[in-house]
Amino acid sequence: MAAKKKQSKGTNEKNRIFRALGLKARLKGANCGGEWFAGSGDHLETFSPTTGESLARIEQASAADYAKVMKQAKKAFIAWRALPAPKRGEIVRQVGLALREKKDMLGALVSLEMGKIRTEGLGEVQEMIDICDFAVGLSRTLSGPTLQSERPKHRMMEQWHPLGVVGVISAFNFPVAVWAWNTALAWVCGDVALWKPSSKTPLCAIACQNIVNEVFRANGLPEGISCVTIGRGSTVGELLINDHDIPLISATGSTRMGQRIGGVVGARLGRSILELGGNNAIIISDKADLTGALASAFFGAVGTAGQRCTSTRRLIIQEKVYDTFVKKLIANYKRVQIGDPLDPGTLMGPLIDEGAVADYEKAIAAAKKQGGKVLYGGKVLKPFGAATFVQPTIIAIENKAEIVQNETFAPVLYVMKYKTFDQALKMHNDVPQGLSSAVYTDSMAESEAFTSYLGSDCGLANVNIGTSGAEIGGAFGGEKETGGGRESGSDSWKAYMRRQTNTINWGGEVHLAQGVEFKA
Ligand code: NAD
Fold it and tell me: What is the pTM of this model?
């Protein structure tokens, strides 16, 4: 392991990234297409997780700023929903093109502000581009079925109509892609979107908004189709989730946040899409290709410094291959280059902040108390001075240990043994969360069992690939404490529209359903 670089590339690249994306040292936190504004007098400072240096200060949106944004969003919805869906798709196509042009700089900003390595920052922008392409196709295929009526000369059908202003709340770890998954779909569905990004990554949100503003402006569209409010959860966040004018809140973040938002939105009978924490495992069978399993477990656990909702947190390994596999994994861990996320040689960047490092340390201490044995890692590193870097860590422990049952958002991997495949499945499902899961096996019976109703209880269940790195074409989300929401591909778009059943009598005679007679 090496953590020797002293000068962060981010410091040198910051000016170039800022210039390309319209960022400055002083910014304001509210926008609906025109000038940025804010009048709270309350400033948010954003820091590089790599060096701890201040990147910018943003005046946060006040309650009055929120009201101004919402007024504009509601007005824009009336105009936007009237545009035919394929025309809305054309705008989203242009957003995808603009993102292609800015991919390098936006990807670099993700690395600078969030700390994921350059290739992952670029990958995140690629996800945005992919979902735009998907949404463009969708804009011509949003459809409902025609149904058979029991009444003569009647036709039944379903239509999907735009919903309104969609509130998007995003987590720090995917500071641009999560917004795009929601917003590109919402836009082609005829909705307008109001984004409250994580306070840990406000610059990513400002940069995205600047990119789409140019597209909307060039097309002469009204302000308010894309809106952002950067502000405290206790002000802007609470206003958003309590707002009866927002029929749908899509919220990505911790289970604790989801419980609060789900409760508030549910109490006003609004809709929510909840994308919450995971506790993802790979079962590694003795009938598996161990080379592939090693590559997937390594990326799943160490990639993004363990800060993906789909990060691999548990390995459930058949006892015959356990020792060999863990030994090889440790050898890989020893080679991890930890350092500046903008340096192409780096494999693992920092955690988001010192609070995340404290959680990492607490988890390791708890694991030790609960019978765990640290097989590798466990130390905090300071290659650039800030205490935000950690060693990726492997701990041998039982699945039932309390710490294993909770998501720690850091590169801590728990390894455990199983004897029979049934035992492995039981351990696999015996956690409160249900996001992503995988099995490595060449046995058809094990693979089928894993994806069957008897198998994984997660929203994503993979065979011979890891838990991390979903494609946008599939519906993304999880069960149990992960919240049950689905975003991105497949038919997830339905959550962003309202369904209407139409019955049309084209024969003239009135027939009551179920043969009811009602004549005076
Ligand atoms: P977090 O819960 O701290 O914050 C997420 C967002 O919720 C932020 O924008 C925050 O400001 C907002 N928020 C918090 N309380 C709010 C309130 N009362 N009203 C309105 N908004 C409020 O999460 P985080 O630390 O940013 O992200 C990490 C978590 O997100 C992990 O648990 C991870 O698994 C999860 N995550 C899940 C998915 C998924 O798709 N399932 C994807 C990415 C991240």
Answer: 0.96
